[in-house]
Each structure stands twice: as C-alpha cells, then as structure tokens.
C-alpha cells in the first residue's frame, strides 16, 4: 500500500541535515527585520516573502542559492532572536513528526552585534530546550542536538571545532563545514579535523554537492568524515551498463563497504543543480545498491519543504512503501551523532513500533 501524505506526516522521522538559518518562518523574518531595520526583497506579506525565498533559491546554482542566507542571518544576531528561531525550528519539526534532529548553523555568522561564539551557542541551546518543552506540552516527543558549522571559505574552523568539543555534553553533537565547495577543499581545515579525531568527536562534511568526486575523496580519506553532507556526486563513480548490471569504482565501493552515511536532500539537490529532478535523483540508484542513504530537508525555507514533503515526493517518484520509509529512518537514526544506547532506544521504542503498526495492519 502506498503511504498517503497524512500517514507520512504521522510516522516518526529522523533529520540529520537541516540548517537553522535555512528554516525560518517567513513571518518571523518579517517581524525581526522590522525590529532592526533590515531591508527585505519584499515586505508585502509572509506569503510573498516565502515565495521570494523559494524562487530565488530555485536557480540551479549553489552559489546563488547561498545568497538567500544574507537575509536570514541578518535577523539572527541577538540572543533573543537566535533563541526564538531555534524554538520555532523545534516546534515546526515536532509538528511534522520528526523525533530526532541535528540542526546545524555557523556560530561565526552570528556575532555581528557583539555576541561571543559561546553566547551564540548558549542562545540556540536555550531555544532548542524551549522548543522541546513546547513539543512535550503539545503531546509530541523530539530530541534535538546542535551541529556547529565552520564556513569553508573562512579560517575559523579550529576555533569552531574547539567550541563544539567544549559544548558536546551540553547539546552539541558534532561539527561540520559548509559553503561553496569549488576552490575551498576540506583539506584547508585539516588541523580542525585532526583535532576532533584526537578528541573522539563526531563530524560531517559538506561534500559531493557542488563539486565532484575529489571533494568526497578528500572528506573521507584525508579528513576522516563520519558522514557526507549530500554526497550525491558519488554516482559519478558508479556505472550502470546497458544490460542493467552495475559497476562501482573504488571510491563508491569504499563508501558503501564502510557504511558511510549520505545525508541526501532531494528537493535542495534539484534546486542547486546537483540532480535534475526528484525522479532522476541518485537516491533511487543508491538505495537499490544499499548505500547508507538518509533523507533530509537541508533548508526548509528556501526549498519550501519538510520531511513529510521530502518523503512523500520519494513515494510518488519511486513507489516507495512503509518498509522503504522505515529503512531510510532507521538508517538516519543509526547514523546520528548520539550515544549508541540512546540511538537504539529511539529505534526500538519509537520508530519500529510505529512502522510495525502500519506494516502489520
């Protein structure tokens, strides 16, 4: 039985790749921009502003896509604003059936009004805790962790890595680097990754989205990434022959053999040109080959998406059923930067029972 949209919304979902500054409510941007005098492309209405973000991001260029963040980051420069955005993020995810989420953002982008990096993380954590409490009051359960991101074109990665380690027992699950891949290889931040490895810390790296196989190879073999942010270009190392047989190159084989998680973001990948359409997205091939594929939103505002939207689109494009959605969800929970016993508890006590009720029924 093909899952309905309502059923997809109801089942537990796990989100590993979602940017805090890419998921604001348009109404919140309008309100916060008015308070600080920031000029927006439109002040007509929240709906019109949401339309602008979606159309501006739908350009087929990662660089143009990233420009939309100028407006969201601008309104996230004070502790109250950061806490509000973080709280609303959790509330929106919980309402969408997300039971575990890792939300990433770059602390270095939120210090223009005088906040320290530590104060930025504290404000976001306070907002997350408020959001979790609000979700519980609404009868929903969600666990949320921070991923601290360093911008790959800047030189603060070691500082952010140290910040992630300092906060790892207070709500931060790991580290990430993000930004335009071309010209900014992950090896520029090798000292930060080596430090994190010495500290037994977790990290993911944006790779294989706007650039090809060299980006993935460096992220894994030079930097030691636990997961790959996007990683869609791994298909460049996979050959599908006319007779249907498939040959994996050495890098693709390594990624599959080592069960390196791929944080796939279908709607975003289409917008940035990393995939031509949902139906042609590499996720279909990679799932059939049993790569460790996960489904994510990336930037809910820019892509006007949600986990329900992403999974429903895959159901429609590939004919996936509940067993497939469960597979994606358990893949993500297995790959989370959370202690093993906590991951297992969510899988056994939350995810499996919910899907069993649908599959057995």
Automatic annotation (TrEMBL):
Protein name: Adenosine deaminase
Family of this protein: Belongs to the metallo-dependent hydrolases superfamily. Adenosine and AMP deaminases family. Adenosine deaminase subfamily.
InterPro entries the UniProt entry points to: A_deaminase, A_deaminase_dom, Ado/ade_deaminase, Metal_Hydrolase
Keyword Metal-binding included in the entry's annotation: yes
Gene3D superfamilies to which the protein is assigned, alphabetical: Metal-dependent hydrolases
The UniProt record lists the keyword Hydrolase: yes
EC number: 3.5.4.4
Site feature (Important for catalytic activity) residues: 230
Positions of the Adenosine deaminase domain: 12-352
Residues holding substrate: 19, 21, 179
GO molecular function: hydrolase activity
Pfam (any one): A_deaminase
Cofactor(s) in the UniProt record: Zn(2+)
PANTHER family linked to this entry: ADENOSINE DEAMINASE (PTHR11409:SF43)
Cofactor binding note from Swiss-Prot or TrEMBL: Binds 1 zinc ion per subunit.
Entry superkingdom: Bacteria
Main function: Catalyzes the hydrolytic deamination of adenosine and 2-deoxyadenosine.
Catalytic activity: adenosine + H2O + H(+) = inosine + NH4(+); 2'-deoxyadenosine + H2O + H(+) = 2'-deoxyinosine + NH4(+)
Active site (UniProt): 209
Coiled coil: none
Keywords recorded for this protein, A-Z: Hydrolase, Metal-binding, Nucleotide metabolism, Zinc
Amino acids binding Zn(2+): 17, 19, 206, 298
């Amino acid at each position: 039985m093909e899952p309905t949209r309502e059923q997809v919304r109801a089942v537990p979902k796990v989100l590993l790749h979602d940017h805090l500054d890419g998921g604001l409510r348009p109404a919140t941007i309008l309100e916060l921009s008015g308070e600080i005098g920031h000029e927006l492309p439109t002040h007509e209405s929240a709906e019109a502003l949401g339309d602008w973000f979606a159309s501006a991001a739908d350009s087929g260029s990662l660089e143009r896509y990233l420009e939309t963040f100028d407006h969201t980051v601008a309104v996230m420069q004070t502790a109250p604003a950061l806490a509000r955005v973080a709280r609303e993020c959790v509330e929106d995810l919980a309402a969408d059936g997300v039971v575990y989420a890792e939300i990433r953002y770059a602390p270095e982008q939120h210090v223009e009004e005088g906040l320290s990096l530590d104060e930025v993380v504290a404000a976001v954590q306070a907002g997350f805790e408020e959001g979790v409490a609000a979700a519980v009051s609404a009868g929903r359960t969600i666990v949320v962790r921070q991923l601290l991101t360093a911008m790959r074109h800047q030189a603060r990665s070691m500082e952010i890595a140290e910040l992630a380690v300092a906060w790892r027992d207070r709500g931060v699950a790991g580290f990430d680097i993000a930004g335009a891949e071309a010209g900014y290889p992950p090896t520029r931040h090798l000292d930060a990754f080596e430090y994190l490895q010495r500290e037994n810390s977790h990290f993911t790296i944006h790779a294989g989205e706007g650039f090809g196989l060299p980006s993935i190879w460096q992220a894994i073999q030079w930097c030691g990434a636990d997961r790959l942010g996007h990683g869609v270009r791994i298909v460049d190392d996979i050959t599908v022959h006319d007779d249907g047989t498939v040959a994996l190159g050495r890098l693709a084989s390594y990624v599959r053999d080592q069960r390196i998680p791929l944080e796939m973001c279908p709607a975003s990948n289409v917008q940035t040109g990393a995939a031509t359409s949902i139906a042609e997205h590499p996720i279909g091939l990679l799932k059939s080959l049993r790569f460790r594929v996960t489904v994510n939103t990336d930037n809910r505002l820019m892509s006007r998406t949600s986990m329900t939207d992403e999974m429903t689109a895959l159901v429609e494009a590939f004919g996936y059923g509940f067993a497939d959605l469960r597979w994606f969800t358990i893949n993500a929970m297995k790959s989370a930067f959370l202690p093993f016993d906590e991951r297992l508890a969510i899988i056994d006590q939350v995810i499996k029972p919910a899907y069993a009720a649908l599959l057995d029924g």
